[in-house]
C-alpha cells in the first residue's frame, strides 16, 4: 500500500490531479486546504493539522494534495510524489480564471470560506492568491526539485506540462 503526494505551487492543479489519481486508483483524496482552513479564513493550529494528516495516513493509502512538507508530514518508502512543475505563466493564467470564477460564482470553499474580489486587488500576498502564486513559484520549484532529488526512498514524478500529466493518468488506468 502506498500513498500519493501531489505537490506544486498554488494554482498548479494539485487538487484536480489528486482527485483524478484517487478516482483511478479507488483511493481516498485528502485535500490539505480542507483540513487547514477553518471558518473566516482562520488557519488550524499546525500541530492539530499535522495530527489530522497523520491520522489520514494511518487509515490506509490516500492521495494527498497540498504542500505537505511544511506541515510536518513525510512520505514513507514506496510512496509516490507527483510534482506539478508547470511554468509560471501557465499557473498564473489558470489561477486568474479559477479565482475569477470562484469570486463571480461565490463558490463555497473550505469551511464555507469564499474568495472575494478584494483579495484580487490586495497587495498582500497572504490575501491575494495570484500574487502569492507568482511570488512563491520560484521557491516552490527549487524546494520541490531538491525534495524529488533527495527522496530516493519514494517513487518520484516531475510533471512539466498537462500532456505529461495525461500520460501519467493514462498509465494509472
Model description:
Helix 4 packs across helix 6. Strand 3 and strand 4 form a beta hairpin. This protein is α/β, with parallel strands linked by helices and 173 residues long. The radius of gyration is 16 Å and the shape is globular. The chain has a domain of 118 residues: P-loop containing nucleotide triphosphate hydrolases (Rossmann fold). It has a five-stranded parallel beta sheet, sandwiched between helices. It has seven helices and seven strands. Helix content is 50%, strand content 16%.
What can be said about this structure in brief?
By secondary structure, the protein is of the alpha/beta class.
Give keywords.
single chain, 173 residues, alpha/beta, Rossmann fold, 5-stranded parallel beta sheet, two-stranded antiparallel sheet, 7 helices
**CATH level 4 superfamily of the domain at 4-86 and 138-172:** P-loop containing nucleotide triphosphate hydrolases
Distance between termini?
A: 17 Å
Write out the strand line-up for the largest beta sheet, numbering strands in chain order: 2-5-1-6-7
Specify the biggest β-sheet. Answer: 5 strands, parallel
Q: What is the CATH C-level name of the domain at 4-86 and 138-172?
A: Alpha Beta
| Structural class based on helices, strands and sheet pairing | alpha/beta
What is the helix fraction of residues, given as a range? 40-55%
Mean pLDDT: 91
Number of strands: 7
Coarse shape:
globular
Task: Give the SSE order as H and E letters.
Answer: EHEHEEHEEHHHEH
- The fraction of residues assigned to DSSP E strands is 15-25%
**Poorly predicted ranges:** none
Going by CATH, the architecture of the domain at 4-86 and 138-172 would be: 3-Layer(aba) Sandwich
CATH fold name of the domain at 4-86 and 138-172? Rossmann fold
Cα-based radius of gyration, to the nearest Å: 16 Å
